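This part of the workshop introduces the protein records we will be handling. Getting from the letters to the C-alpha cells is the skill we practise here. An example says more than a description, so a record of this kind follows:
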Amino acid sequence: MQNPFAPAPRRRSVAVDVGGVTVGGDAPIVVQSMTNTDTADIEGTARQVADLARAGSELVRITVDRDEAAAAVPHIRDRLARWGVRVPLVGDFHYIGHKLLADHPACAEALAKYRINPGNVGFKAKRDSQFGAIVEKAIQYGKPVRIGVNWGSLDQELLTHLMDENAGSEAPRTAREVMHEAIVQSGLLSAARAEEIGLPRSRIVISAKVSQVQDLVAVYGELARRCDYALHLGLTEAGMGSKGLVASSAAMGILLQQGIGDTIRYSLTPEPGGDRTREVIAAQELLQTMGFRSFVPVVAACPGCGRTTSTVFQELARDIQDHIRTNMPAWREKYPGVEALNLAVMGCIVNGPGESKHADIGISLPGTGESPAAPVFIDGQKATTLRGPGIAEAFTRLVEDYIEARFGKGARAAE
C-alpha cells in the first residue's frame, strides 16, 4: 500500500556537472553555502571555504565583485588544494561580471560555476550584450551558469510590462501574482537566451529567491511545472536565529516534499562573530530529518520534564552531538556508512529504555528519584549498566567501540 504521506516523486531535471558534483538528475540533493569574507583576502576566504567544506558544504559560493577579488580566486583554489580541500567554487557576479571574467581569465578558469542575476547583469541596451558576454565565457571555459533571480533586484522593465499587460486584462491578477510571474519569466527567458547563445541545458541551473515562505512555494511550484532545468532552493534574506531557521525550513520543506529542488542553501544572517557553518548544518539537518539524505549519526534525546530535574542527560546529549560533529570529517573517511548510525540519550524510565532499544546504541539515564544506574542498549539488547560520575566518558567510549566494530575495516572485511 502506497504511503499517502510519503514525499512526491522527485521532479526529473536535467543533470548539471558542477566541478565534479552533480546537481539534478538522479543525484542526491546538494548542500551549498556562501562565504561572507572579502574574497580579496585570500587567506581568510580560503579558511572559511575550508570550514564550510569540512562541515559538509558540497559547493561554496564566493563574491567576485571587483578586480582584486577576481585576481584572488585562483590563489584561493590553489591554497585549498594544498590543504586537501577539493570543493567546487561558485563565483557570485553582479553588475560587472562580464568585465571581470574577460579581464581575469584565471578566475574564469578556476571557478566551477558562475552565478548571474538577470536583474542586474546590465541595464537597457547593455543588458543583452553583457549577459551574452558572461554566457560566452561559460561556453569557452566549459562552466555551468546559475541564473539567480531575486525579487529584491528584479528586472523592472519586465515587471512593468507585465503590470501594464495585467491592467488591461479582462480578469486581472493581483499584484503579488504578477510579481510571481515576473520572477518565473525572468528565469525562464534568461535560460532560453543562454541556450540560444549556445549554452546547453545541462549547464543551466535556475534559482528564484524571495523572502516570504508562501511566495517561494508559489514561484518554485510554477517553475517546476514549466521547465526541467535543475533548481536551486533558498529563502533569501531569511533572517537571524530561529526566525531564519524556521522560515527556511518551512519553505524548503514544503517544496522538497513536493519533489521540487536539486540543491539548497540556508541564507541565515549570522550572529556577530557567529559560525558561518551553521547554515550548512541546518541544510543537512533538514535533508536528514525529512529522510532524503544521511550526513551524521542521529542523536535522539528527550526534551526533559519534571522527572528529569538533573541536567546530566542534557549535557550528555550535547557532548555526544558535539563529539560526532567534531569527528565526522575523519569518520567519513575511516568509517563509511557511519552517518546512518542512530543514538539515543534519554532522561528517565518513562521512554528511556524503549527509545534506547530502538536506537543502534542508546542510554537511559536515571530520572529524579530513580536508582542511580544507566542501562545501555546496543542493537536492541541491554549490553551493560553504567554507574558513578564517569557515565558520560564511559558511554562515549562505548559509542566509539560500536562505530569501530560496525563500520571499521575489520567489520567490512568480514562482510
Remarks:
- The first strand starts at residue 16 and ends at 18.
